[in-house]
Design goal:
Length: 215
Amino acid sequence: MALSHPIEPVLHAVPIKDLRPTQMTVGMHEVKRKRDAWEKLKARAESKGGAFLGTHMIPTVVGPDGLHWLVDHHHLALALHEAGEEKVLVSVIAKLQHLPKKRFFAFMDSHNWLHPYDEDGERRDWKDLPRHVGKLVDDPYRSLAGEVRRGGGYAKSPTPYTEFLWADYFRSRIKRGQIEGKFDKALVKGIELARIPEASYLPGYAGPDHGGEED
């Protein structure tokens, strides 16, 4: 459903503490990766840091009470928060502050802009969403899914919440303790599992790895 009043991509500087998450979990491996990259970039030159933020705008939807709700880049927002940054550039993609809360969240859900699943993969009520990016919690399976993609297990896909779908796939196949205690081994297993036919329904499925075979 198209918005009746398209929003121009006007950029705003918004305090990170005022951003409201639309999901409950992140992969802390990815958060750490982004935080380290930002801190290295900022150490080189403040101007380069500004250029980085200028190419990594965070899309938000303005909801009830004028709050900015994140619809992407939760990992980046949390990484910048942990790095001590106070503000970030956002691009408002919809203004829905006129909607009552229930209708607002129904709209967000119907547009795949809401993913209220906890670290066990269970759907929760929108009222359980964290009120600050600093309250996002780690889902080890989300961390694993992100690293499996970077390791070539599957391809990047425009499908919303691709890595959460892969995280749920791994959830029933790899023990949580293995991810938390022996991440490298879990990663190898994850890449193998991403290549088998059982994973073919998932976005970005790349199929078996035949790179080392001869004719």
